[in-house]
C-alpha cells in the first residue's frame, strides 16, 4: 500500500485524461466499508451517520449491477427522496456514472434507464402496494429507518427479488432504535457495515463536522446521527429526570450576556405567558429564573418582563412573535422596556426547536441556579418530547427556555436552524 506522500506524488504524475478515468474508478477512492462485502450474502446493510458516504456506496453498488443489464429497484421514504437523493443527488446514480454509462431518468415512467438496457424502477415506501407484481435482480433501499412501515414494505420488496441466480439487496440508512432494523440485523445472510460521519471527513466541508460536534458532541443524538449507532431510549422525551437533577449549581458573579425570553399568550387572559431569564458565561448557559405569569393581561406580562430585565441586568429581550411581532414589540415598549427587543418566529415544530437545547443539557452545559428547583418548568421540559406539545396545555415555560438558550448558546439568535439537518 502506498504512503500518503507516495500516493499524492503518483496522482500528480497522471495526465488529465488518466485522472478523468481514475476519477470515476470507485474502487480507488472508496473506503473499504463503502465496498460491497465479499462472500455469499443476501442483504448488505450499511449503517452510517449523516455524510458518512452511504448514498455513494449504494449508488456505486447499483451502478455495478446495472453494468450487467440487470432489472433493478430503487426505493426511498418518498418518490421525492428517490429522485433528489438516489438519482439526481450529488452522490446519486447520475452524478457517479461514467460518461459512456450515464443513465436517463424517465419520471413519467418512474424509471432510470442505462445505455446498455439496464432499468431501475423507482418506488416510494409510502406506497408499498406498488411493489406487488414487479420483479428484479437487485434492489437498493435508502433511509430504511425513515420509512413509514419499514417491515411491511421491506417484505413486499423482497418478494419481488426473484430474478437471476443470486438476487441481492443493499439497504443504506442512518440507524434508529426501531424493531424493524433490529430484526433485519439479526437475519441470516445479512452483512452489516458501519461508518461514522468523521470517517468521511475528507468528503465534507471543514465546518460541517466541527460545527455539529460543538453542539451535539457527547449526546445520544450525536451517537445516532453522526456515529451511526443504534441508541435506545425508554421513551421519546427530550429531557430525562436524571439530566435535569444534576444540572443545579451556583450562579457565576457575572455574565457575558443575559436575556429575558418571552412566549406571549395567544389571547388576552388565555394561557400563561412563559418568561424565563438565562445568562451565558464562557460558553455555558445558566437558567436564572422562571418568571412565568398565569393568565396575565398584555400589560401584565410586559411589566413582568421589564421587571426581570431590571432585576437581572438583561441586555435584550427575546420574544416569540407568531401572534403578531409588532404588537408584542408595542406592548413591551408601552411597559417601558429599554433594551433591545428581538422578535423571533417559530418556523419548525416545538420538538425540533427543543432538540438542540436538550442536547446542551445532555452535554452538561446548562446550570439551573437558585435555592429551589424550577419544578413547573422542569415538568414541561420532560413532557415536551412526548408528542408535539407533550400535553393538551401549551408548554409556555419550556418554550421560553428554548428561545433563551438557543439565542445564547446555539445560533446567537433564537431560531435553532441546525435542527433542520
Distance between the termini: 37 Å
Q: Give the number of domains.
A: 2
Structural class of the helix and strand makeup? Answer: alpha/beta
What would you say the CATH architecture of the largest domain is? 3-Layer(aba) Sandwich
Provide a count of the helices.
16
User: Are there runs of 5+ residues with pLDDT below 50, and where?
Assistant: 387-392, 414-421
Give the helix proportion (percent range). 25-40%
CATH superfamily label of the largest domain: P-loop containing nucleotide triphosphate hydrolases
Largest sheet: 8 strands, mixed
Q: Write down the Rg.
A: 26 Å
Protein name: Terminase large subunit gp17-like C-terminal domain-containing protein
Keywords: Viral release from host cell
InterPro entries: P-loop_NTPase, Terminase_6C
Domain Terminase large subunit gp17-like C-terminal: 261-406
Amino acid at each position: 500500500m502506498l504512503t500518503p506522500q507516495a500516493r499524492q506524488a503518483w496522482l500528480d504524475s497522471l495526465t488529465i485524461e488518466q485522472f478523468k478515468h481514475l476519477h470515476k474508478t470507485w474502487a480507488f477512492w472508496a473506503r473499504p466499508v463503502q465496498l460491497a462485502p465479499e462472500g455469499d450474502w443476501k442483504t448488505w446493510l450499511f449503517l452510517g451517520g449523516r455524510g458518512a458516504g452511504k448514498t455513494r456506496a449504494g449508488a456505486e453498488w447499483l451502478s455495478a449491477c446495472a453494468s450487467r443489464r440487470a432489472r433493478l429497484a430503487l426505493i426511498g421514504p418518498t418518490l421525492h427522496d428517490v429522485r433528489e437523493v438516489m438519482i439526481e443527488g450529488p452522490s446519486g446514480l447520475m452524478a457517479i456514472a461514467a460518461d459512456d454509462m450515464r443513465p436517463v431518468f424517465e419520471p413519467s415512467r418512474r424509471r432510470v434507464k442505462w445505455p446498455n438496457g439496464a432499468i431501475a424502477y423507482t418506488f416510494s415506501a409510502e406506497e408499498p402496494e406498488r411493489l406487488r407484481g414487479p420483479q428484479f435482480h437487485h434492489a437498493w433501499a435508502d433511509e430504511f429507518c425513515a420509512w413509514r412501515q419499514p417491515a411491511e414494505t421491506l417484505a413486499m420488496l423482497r418478494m419481488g427479488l426473484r430474478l437471476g441466480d443470486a438476487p441481492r439487496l443493499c439497504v443504506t440508512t442512518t440507524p434508529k432504535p426501531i424493531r424493524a432494523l433490529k430484526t433485519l440485523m439479526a437475519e441470516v445472510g445479512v452483512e452489516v457495515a458501519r461508518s461514522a460521519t468523521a470517517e468521511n471527513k475528507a468528503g465534507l466541508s471543514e465546518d460541517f463536522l466541527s460545527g455539529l460536534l460543538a453542539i451535539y458532541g457527547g449526546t445520544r443524538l450525536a451517537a445516532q446521527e453522526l456515529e451511526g449507532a443504534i441508541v435506545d431510549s425508554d421513551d421519546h422525551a427530550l429531557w430525562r429526570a436524571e439530566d435535569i437533577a444534576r444540572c443545579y449549581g451556583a450562579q457565576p458573579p457575572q455574565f457575558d450576556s443575559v436575556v429575558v425570553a418571552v412566549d406571549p399568550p395567544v389571547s388576552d387572559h388565555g394561557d400563561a405567558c412563559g418568561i424565563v431569564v438565562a445568562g451565558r458565561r464562557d460558553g455555558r448557559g445558566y437558567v436564572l429564573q422562571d418568571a412565568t405569569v398565569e393568565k396575565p393581561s398584555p400589560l401584565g406580562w410586559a411589566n413582568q418582563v421589564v421587571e426581570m430585565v431590571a432585576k437581572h441586568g438583561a441586555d435584550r429581550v427575546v420574544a416569540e412573535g407568531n401572534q403578531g411581532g409588532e404588537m408584542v414589540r408595542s406592548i413591551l415598549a408601552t411597559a417601558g422596556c429599554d433594551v433591545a427587543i428581538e422578535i423571533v418566529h417559530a418556523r419548525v415544530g416545538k420538538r425540533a426547536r427543543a432538540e438542540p437545547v436538550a442536547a446542551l443539557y445532555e452535554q452538561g452545559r446548562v446550570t439551573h441556579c437558585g435555592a429551589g428547583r424550577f419544578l413547573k418548568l422542569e415538568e414541561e421540559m420532560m413532557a415536551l418530547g412526548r408528542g408535539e406539545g407533550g400535553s393538551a396545555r401549551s408548554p409556555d415555560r419550556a418554550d421560553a427556555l428554548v428561545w433563551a438558550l438557543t439565542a445564547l448558546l446555539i445560533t446567537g439568535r433564537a431560531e435553532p436552524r441546525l435542527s433542520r439537518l
